[in-house]
Write a structure and sequence with these properties.
Elements: H1 5-19, H2 24-36, H3 40-45, H4 53-67, H5 72-76, E1 78-81, E2 84-87, H6 99-109, E3 116-120, H7 126-134, E4 139-144, H8 147-159, E5 165-169, E6 182-187, H9 215-218, H10 220-229, E7 233-242, H11 248-257, E8 261-267, E9 273-280
Parallel strand pairs: 3-4, 3-6, 4-5, 6-7
Antiparallel strand pairs: 1-2, 7-9, 8-9
Length: 284
Amino acid sequence: MPRSIEQVLKQTTAQLSTAGSDSPQLDSAVLLCHVLDKPRSYLLTWPEKQLDDAQYEAFQALLTRRIDGEPVAYIIGEREFWSLSLKVSPSTLIPRPDTERLVELALEKISVSATKVLDLGTGTGAIALAIASECPMLQVTGIDLRQEAADLALENSQRLSISNTRFLAGSWYSPLQKNETFDVIVSNPPYIDEADPHLVQGDVRFEPKSALVADDNGLADIRIISDQGRQHLAIGGWLLMEHGFEQGSAVREILAQLGFQQVSTSQDYAGLDRVTMGCWQGEK
């Protein structure tokens, strides 16, 4: 029975590849590092090290969960985003690399005079914490519908010692004061149509549907965020929303009809439409 790190990784990479993993080698390495409590560099430095019985059994248990399709982030309870190690749970979406593009664009819109940023549908707090870590002079608020998600985001902020944040539970803007405004509002809201076949494929099968699916061909929550956002944006403030790669035109139309200016769509790292933004200059 193979027990060296090198042998185990080779065997399990083949198993995960057969099971349909998009990244079998990475999945194997991450799970083994979790069991050994070592960085990935350890696997390369000590490929001949032998796993003891307890380590091997623990690894096999995690491997079985991954073969069954459970996301690695849920199995190990964490995911890296913007170089921040975040705790995750099945009550939140798993932060994805494409969403770092939303953070980049938001940072470009944060002026030197900005003081407040709002992240709607904060989940793990990934977007809010990334922005807060880059801009310690800002006060960043994250809101999520689920109290358990808001609690997890707060826990992440405390673990990372990012103190310029607060996290609230409620539906979109409802936890805010009526006249509370922000210089930048960001959101990665639900935007997948309920009939989308991707919902029964891959990692998303395990993620909360309430954080993925929206009515009106995936645009219902984007409409709410855009419409009500006008009451919570400072004059000259920006709204930026992540969306599906085929929704750029529709989201631009929504913002333009509501009176937003400088409406545009930016692409993700694969060159696909991913983030649409607009500037609020007040009612005309």
